[in-house]
Write a structure and sequence with these properties.
The protein has 5 helices and 20 strands. It has 415 residues and is α+β, with helices and mostly antiparallel strands. The strands form 2 sheets. The chain has a 16-stranded mixed β-sheet that branches. Strands 6-5-3-8 form a 4-stranded antiparallel β-sheet, with no helix packed on it. Strand 16 (334-339) and strand 17 (345-355) form a beta hairpin. Helix 2 (111-146) packs antiparallel against helix 3.
Length: 415
């Protein structure tokens, strides 16, 4: 009887088992791939080109200012010293108070100077008595010599004595005046009006005339002066700009100088320029500009560090470029990316002057109407055409994206 199944040889059976195993491994993978293809979304669209924004450069009048550092100082400062020596018997002021010119500050013991005055007045009285006697004698001898009753020599001696008496009176009067002045100096007064500081002596101290250490210092705070320091290069550049017409300036601007205090606040009063140094410092290459500020509330004190904002003038055709549009070369030169009429990007070297409110003032390299790239500069390459650049002034949030079609929306919803 013939068997139902034919037994295969051993080698064939092995090859058959191997084919079944391979088929068993491939079959699930095929089902998985088919299932992924059925559920896979449509192929993703190409990414949009980078957004490149530009700004059209415009020329406009611009008022320029210069910030200068400086120190405040009192408009008047007097170091009070005694003009006569003696013992200080009384202090006649309160430290830190506001005083007036001529107000008594100290009292020096006046008794020695009163004695000198009394002695000088006595000498003056004696000299005047001698003068009266010499005057009468000279009158009598003038009549006698006319009658040849006395010799001419005796008359001349009498006239000389009279003149000597006149000189003695003048000298005695000068001594009296000197003694009166010395006596008045025993009361030390303030030479100026202002705020008085701390006293360097106390009652009972011995002082000498014209000593090196002042008794006290008086300073006038209203107005307050500010000495500003500027370099000679800045002065030359400013004068050159005025001469070639880059800047125009009104003289009234010199009376509108603002001040920034150490804490960053703005001083409420405006100042005016008094004068500038007539020479440049050889050691620092700078000069000093003095400005006067009203100080009725005495906010400003001597020695404060401040910054003054001085008007340089008005530039008729100023070009401003956002700071983020300006880059620097390894050598420090400024450059910007610009677009030509074909929307092709290129690098343009520029010269910047100063930064104003996060914008660079460009003096060379650009002209009105140039399109400067301000956003997306990292995607730009030289001579690269830019597709659909947008104006950042009209589209500050970037180019608006086009809405999807209804069919695309329905397909997305269905998926």
């Amino acid at each position: 009887m013939r068997p139902m199944f034919t037994r295969l040889p051993m080698d064939k059976r092995r090859r058959h088992v191997t084919h079944l195993q391979i088929f068993a491994l491939i079959l699930p993978a095929l089902f998985f791939i088919a299932a992924c293809e059925d559920s896979a979304p449509p192929s993703a669209a190409m990414p949009p080109p980078p957004a490149i924004g530009y700004l059209v450069v415009k020329s406009e009048p611009l008022e320029l200012f210069s910030n200068m550092p400086g120190r405040t100082l009192a408009s008047f400062k007097a170091e009070v010293r005694p003009q006569v020596g003696g013992i200080v018997t009384k202090q006649l002021f309160k430290e830190g108070a506001i005083i007036n010119k001529g107000q008594p500050l100290y009292q020096i013991d006046p008794e020695p100077f009163q004695v000198q005055l009394d002695s000088a007045q006595s000498e003056l009285a004696r000299a005047r008595a001698n003068l009266a006697t010499a005057s009468n004698r000279a009158k009598r001898y003038r009549n006698l010599v006319a009658q040849n009753a006395v010799s001419r020599q005796d008359y001349d001696d009498t006239v000389a004595s009279f003149q000597q008496a006149q000189a003695d009176v003048t000298a005695a009067q000068a001594a009296v005046d000197s003694a009166e002045i010395s006596l008045s100096y025993t009361q030390v007064t303030s030479p100026i009006s202002g705020r008085i500081g701390r006293s360097n002596i106390t009652e009972g101290a011995l002082v000498t005339a014209n000593q090196s250490t002042p008794l006290v210092t008086v300073q006038t705070y209203d107005p307050m002066y500010v000495d500003l320091t500027a370099s000679s290069n800045e002065l030359l550049a400013f004068r050159r700009a005025l001469s070639d017409g880059t800047y125009s300036r009104n003289k009234d601007e010199l009376n509108r100088i603002s001040l920034t205090l150490e804490d960053g606040s703005t001083y409420p009063q405006l100042g005016s320029i008094l004068f500038s140094d007539i020479s440049i410092s050889e050691s620092t290459g700078s000069f000093v500009l003095r400005v006067s500020f009203p100080n009725p509330d005495q906010i400003l004190l001597p020695g404060m560090f401040v910054r003054a904002r001085l008007p340089k003038g008005t530039m008729a055709n100023a070009l401003l470029v956002p700071a983020k549009a300006v880059s620097r070369t390894p050598q420090g030169d400024a450059q910007v990316w610009i677009l030509d009429e074909n929307n092709t990007a290129s690098i343009q070297r520029v010269v910047t002057d100063e930064m104003l409110d996060n914008q660079w003032l460009v003096t060379e390299g650009l002209k009105a109407g140039d399109r400067v790239i301000v956003t997306g500069t990292q995607f730009v390459r030289p001579n690269m055409p830019v597709a659909k650049p947008y104006d950042v002034t009209t589209s500050p949030n970037g180019p608006s994206s086009e809405p999807a079609s209804e069919g695309a929306a329905d397909t997305t919803a269905a998926n």
